[in-house]
Specification:
It contains three helices and nine strands. The chain is an alpha+beta fold and 189 residues long. Bound molecules: fe (iii) ion.
């Protein structure tokens, strides 16, 4: 498990010496990823509206959009500049349901997700360029989390059909990743 040293999770794992991993299903909504990956537990209670249970060690196990759980005890920590790599020994595991897991590639290429500076995956390593944009289908980028609204894709999780220009998004539409309004978006270069 690779965690940015600035993240609250880093503090928790360092002091508790345990961590859990929940494998998300491919269909997981961007809202869930945004909540868990783009917000900090220092600002909000991430688990307030999430269905989860506690593992025997006390760490959380997601119960929604989850295919499997792993529970680990930290046996070694490797310093890697911005991140620490926590090497864990498996102490428990559970298959929740069958399905296809969400890979980082699927999240990034299909869901058009991005990587916050403090994400477990160092940004820049696995980011890819999106396809060529059409001149009349201007993309807009969220200045808070770098999510890119692509009219060719729309925002199916929020009921926005493919082919919807940014200007036609409803006024109450929010960034599916970090939750800010349209005013926080700007045109991509
Ligand atoms: Fe955003």
């Amino acid at each position: 498990m690779c965690i940015n040293k600035k993240n609250l999770s880093h503090e928790f794992i360092s002091s508790s010496r345990v961590f859990t991993v929940s494998v998300l299903e491919k269909e997981s909504p961007m809202k869930l990823i945004g909540l868990l990956g783009f917000k900090s537990g220092r600002d909000i209670d991430k688990f307030k509206d999430i269905n989860y249970k506690k593992s025997p060690s006390g760490a959380p196990l997601l119960l929604e959009h989850t295919l499997a759980h792993m529970e680990c005890k930290v046996i070694k920590v490797v310093d890697s500049l911005t991140h620490d790599i926590f090497i864990g020994k498996l102490t428990g595991a559970e298959n929740v349901k069958s399905g296809e897991p969400m890979t980082y590639e699927y999240y990034h290429v299909v869901k058009k997700g991005t990587t916050p500076d403090t994400a477990p995956v160092p940004s820049g390593i696995v980011k890819r360029e999106a396809g060529k944009e059409e001149a009349n289908m201007q993309k807009y980028v969220c200045t808070v989390c770098n999510y890119v609204y692509d009219p060719a894709v729309g925002d199916p999780d929020s009921g926005i059909a493919a082919g919807t220009p940014f200007s036609d998004l409803p006024d109450d539409w929010v960034c599916p990743v970090c939750g800010v309004g349209k005013e926080e978006f700007k045109e991509t270069d």
